[in-house]
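The following record pairs a protein chain with its ligand, fructose -6-phosphate.
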Amino acid sequence: MCGIVGYVGQENALDFLLNSLKVLEYRGYDSSGVAISSTDHKINVVKAKGKLNNLINLTNGLNIQGNVGIGHTRWATQGVPSDINAHPHSNSNCSVAIVHNGIISNYIDLKEELVSKHNIEFTSETDSEVVAHLIGVYIEEGLSTKEALIESTKKIKGSYALSVISKEDPGKILLTCNDAPLVVGVGKNKDLYCASDSAALLKYTNQIIRLKDHQIAELSGNGEFTIMDSHNGDFISPEVQTMNFDPFHLDKGEYKHFLMKEIHEQPSIIRNLLGIHLDQDLNINFEGLDEAVFNDINRIIIIGCGTAYYAGLIGKYLLESFSRIPCEIEFASELLARPILADERTLVVAISQSGETADTLMAVKSALSKGARLLTITNRPESTLAALAQNTTILIRAGIEVSVAATKSFTAQVVCMYLLSLHLAAKVKELNPEELKWLKSSLRAIPLIMEQVLSRAEEYREKILPFANKTSFIFLGRGINYPVAMEGALKLKELTYVQATGYASGEMKHGPIATIDENVPTVSILLPGPTYHKALHNLIEAKTRGAPSIAIVADGDKEATREANVVFSVPELPRADEFPHLQDALSPFVSVVPLQLIAYYLAEYLGKDVDQPRNLAKSVTVE
Ligand code: F6R
C-alpha cells in the first residue's frame, strides 16, 4: 500500500527518489517524504502531506545534496495523514531515519518501554516511529547500524519492509523485511537501489533481487552489497532476476489517464496471452506449468479480493460448467475467518494482480498448511505469491497496471480462467470435442470484438452523462454476467464515490427492489444466452417501480431495446447455434468494457481523481 524506495551510488539521491516515488504514488498517496544523508554527514528529512507534488515543490526550494537516500509514499493505517505521520521517521537527534511498510503489531509495548527506559519523546502517532528509536538506542549502545537493525527485528512483531540510513554508516542503506515485499536493484555504474515494488526501478535497472523474510541487505556506495540471513548469520549468494516489464507501461501516451489507456490495452493483452497459450491447432499449452498440480484433485477453492475475486467468480462458473469439478470461491479475508477445509486433493487457485495482497497471501499460506495444492494467477512474476508457486503460476502478462482501479488485469485474469477451465475440461473429458473447439476458436475472436466495443466509447459517453447527477445505481447480471455486474458496480464506486450495488438479477425481487425509485438507475447486462429472458424480466420488474433502465445489449437486440430507456449496444459474439447453452460463455469480455467506460466517463465528468481515487491504494498489503 505504501511505497519504499532507496538509492546509494554516485549520483544525487533526490532525483531518483522523487522520480521513483512518482511511479509508486499509485501505492499510496496521502503523504510522502525523503531522507538524504548529505555530504556533510547530516540526515535531511523532508516530508509533506498530500500528493507527491507537494513534496516535489517543497524540495525544489531546498538544496539537498547527497548520494544516499530513502523515500516513502504513504497510505495511512496508523495515524492520520499529516506531515508528522509521513515517513521517513527518525530518532530524537535525527541520527537514524527509516521508512516502513507494514504494521508493527507490538508498537504500543515497545513505545512504553522506550519512553520509560530511555526517556524518548515520540512525535508521530505511527507504529513505525518505534523502529527509528529502537535502532538509535542500539547504536548509542555501541552497535553498528546493521547490528542495531538485527537487534531491533528481534523485538518488533508484525509485518515490515524497512529501509534504514544512519549517520553511523553514512554511505550505506540497510534493508530487511518480513511478510512485506522489498527488492534490491543492481544498476549500472555501481548504483544500487531498493524498492517495495520493482516497478519503481524499471527506468533504472531490470536486475533485481527479491529479499526473503529475515534477510538483511547492506548496500554500499561503491556498488557492493551483501545479503545475510539474520537468524543464523549466513551470507547468501543473491538470486538476480531480470524484470521483463516494458517501461512504456509507466507512460500515459496519448491518453489523459492511465485508466483509459489500460482499458484500451485490453484487446492487445488478450491477443498476446492467447498467442502464448493457444496454438494454431487450438491446443492449450502452459509451458513450464507442473501438470502434477492437477493430479487427483476433487475440489477447487478460488481465492481473491476485489476485482480479482470477481474474475475468480467467473472462473467458478467456467470450471464447474466445463470440468464439473466442484469449485468454491472465497474472499481471502473471509477464508481466514474460519478453519479452512482443504486437504491434499484440494486445488487452491489464488488470483492477485499484484501478488502482494496480504489477505490473499495469508489465506494461501493457511490452505498450504492443510496440504492443499496451489496454482496462482498473477501479473507479477517477482511477487510473493508467485514465489509460493514457482512451477504453478500462470502470468496474466498485462504489463504494469498503474491506475488504482483494476481493468486490464481483470480481463487478463478472466482469459487465464478460460484457458485453465478449458485445459481441465480436456483432461476430464467433460466437454465434447466440438464444444471445446467452438469455445477455443471463439476465444480467439474476442480481441477484435473488444476493439469494436472500444470504438464505440464516445457514443457510450454521450449516453451516460445524463445520469451524472444520480447518486445511486444498481448493476444487474445473471449467470456468468453476475460477477460482471458486481465488477461494474465496484468500478463505479471506486471512481465516482457514488453508491453502486451489483446484484444477481434474480435476487432483486428478494429485497433490493425496495430501494428502487426514479432516482436509482439500473444497469442490466442483457446479452444473448440462456439467462436472457429471465434477466429481461428482472429489468422490467425494476422499470415498473420507476427505475430508469440502462441495458447492455447485443447489436440487433429487439426485446431489451424496446424495454430499456437507454441501451449500450455491443457487437454480437460468435453464434453458438449448435450449443445454445454456451452462447453467453464468452460474454463477460464484451459486457465489462461498457461498464468500465461508464465508470470512467462519469468520474471524469464529476472531476474525480480517476487514476488515484480517494482512500484507495494499489496492492493492499495489510490485513
Ligand atoms: C479494484 C481493485 C481492488 C483489487 C484488490 C485485489 O479495482 O483494484 O479491488 O482488485 O485489492 O488486488 P490484487 O489483485 O492485487 O490482489
